Fold these 2 entries.
Entry 1:
Amino acid sequence: MYFSSSSQKFRWMVLGLATGTQATATFVTYGVGPLAAIWQQTFSLSQAQVGLLISMVNIGPLMSMLFIGRALDQHGERWIVGVGSILLGLTMGVSSLLSSYLSLLVTLLLVGIFYGTAQPGGNKVVIKWFDSSQRGLATGIRQAGIPIGGALAGWLIPLLSVRYDWPIAVQLQASSAFIGGLMFLLIYRDPVKESKIPTQHVNFIGELRNLSRKKSLYPLLFSGFSLISFQMVLVAHLMLYLKSKIEHMTLVSTGFMLSLCLLFGMLGRITLAWLSDTIWKGNRIKPLEMILWMSVVGLVVLVVLPEKIPIWCIYVVCSWLGFFGVGWYSLYIVEIGEKAKEHSVGLTVSYALTINQVAIIMAPFFFGLFVDWSNSYALPWIGLASLLSASGIWLRKSSSIPFIEKRMEFNTPISGQNTPHEKRKKNRKIV
């Protein structure tokens, strides 16, 4: 048995802890989206400059995540995730004292560097504590921390900024991340194993080279690139789009729509991941294909929204966009984690997330630049729908490879277990 009776109970507490830490960290980073709309008025910024604010907070993880993934494989999650979240809160708190656009950009870069500990660390917690029969559900619950944090940011930050001032909202973000990191540091422990696997020393550059050569990963990585672009554009530009497109919508009401979108994203992350465990029997690719095409449908509807439309219709559209355009992430992460070797789960997840960071950085900025150039949102939305369509076609073609063969090639054994191939290798060494 991988878990003792006590750890069977404690793992759900660990899952709640990891989810809460992720939510408080995301409350900071996703809160930059609503704050950007406020900073646009405060600092008289263009759409491209607003997009650069979103991009800057995501350059940090691009710089740090691979090294963090390697450190997680070598040293575990407790100190890296806990201290990272504490530093995230302290750095964000500094931004409430700033009064210039340039200093804000530099501070947001540091915020992003410390946020780089949350995603790979939390995903490795799930890989450690849950086996493959429940990993989709557990990942979905943990990943729900992202839309929870984002939804709170979309609701609270505009509300506090309008009633008081934006530094008050930033201070709330900072204290939340600090407390989340402190709780993780004090409570989290690794699972107790009955048998320990010797630590494997693998060359960092060599492991990265091996990952980059796995061509069978390319369609999945491109799907992640496309979907995270869609998700981040929603976070950064949905409020501004609805405010400019729909009559009688205010900053507070558009913030509520973003919150609704992210709340349905939370529901999607849990529901779709659970269905992949049950209905699809561990196949994550089929639901990912469906998500891509449902996201395209949502974008088309978003483009053709009339200026005068019943409010319930906007609720439906935002809920649809959130369920699929934000709810995809758990499926993607658990698929990447299951394809990793046991000794390099952190690095493999960080590798995929680093590629995603490129899209996270580029998408909001270039989408805003495209809006400025075309003086319209229609063409940028259509371009994004085309990217998702291309990804869906490529993923569909790649799924013609039998699912069982792909799973045999990449499946990650639960800690404490050996694959038949590993057992044969050990037997040869004994002889």
Note: The domain at 11-187+213-414 is CATH 1.20.1250.20 (Growth Hormone; Chain: A;).
Entry 2:
Amino acid sequence: MRDPYLVLGLTRSASADDIKQAFRGLAKQYHPDLNPGRPDIEQKFKEVNAAYSLLSDPDKRARFDKGEIDASGAERPDRTFRRAWGAGAGSGRGGGFGAGFGTRGPGGGAKPGAGAGDDPFADDMFNDIFGATKRRYSSGGGAGVKAKGSDVNYSVSVSFADACLGAKRRLTLSTGKTIDVNIPPGTRDQTKLRLKGQGLAGLGGAGAGDAIVEVLVDNHPLFTRKDDDIHLDVPVTLQEAVLGAAIKVPTLDGQVAVKVPAGANSGTILRLKGKGIPNADRKVTGDLYVKLMVMLPEKPDAELTSFIERWSKGKDYDVRRKLGV
């Protein structure tokens, strides 16, 4: 696999937000649903997903930057070997493979001679190289190692409405298997869903790991979420504000009619009960709060200007009195 930074078009100094934004753009560009019958695009989509999976995890990213794991997230076993070899054979003390290691004596101490105690990495090297064999045969005379499979990270992008109302997204796993992921109603941005048993296979008959799916929710051009409620700014004309009117406003599931009370000001808030976001845990649905914004005509109107000039004479109309200015 290529360097994940190159896959996402980033440098190593990229922030977490830079990584997320780059992924969102590329995930939309290469999404298989938007490119049906294009195996090359599907492969690019998998590559982008894998790169984001590694770089969005702070621990994995740090280990990759240090060279401890490769671009696929796999360990680099040669690093431990090179470290021990360099500390022993390359140190100039004895010059041979075993020169810097010494032998163990009674009570766990190192016997003098043969470079005993010269190499602080000797025990680490033996443990790293031969530890797996020792664990395998230390109990049961050759019984196989059992270890649960590793979890695998994925991510999916959903629209604001789909996150609020619930949806399904098709996900291709690293194994090539395709599954439908259920996005529960009310899902928030960066929520992580755990799909049990959909990670890497275990060893020695142990269970598979899980798939951890991070849900990235797109912003909405009109709605703003606050807990389980939705807030929406709605422009109204001067005559609608002064005289009152029935207007239509958008909601998550279509338009509804609301009544603008006569004499409404900018900032007047209308509450539409139950038109917000479902909360499965509390078994309630939030509300939609509509803030009215009184708008003057886009082009100056001479008749309106003349009327206001006549109307304002002698009127006690000080809207900033409470500010003390």
Note: The domain at 224-315 is CATH 2.60.260.20 (HSP40/DNAj peptide-binding domain).
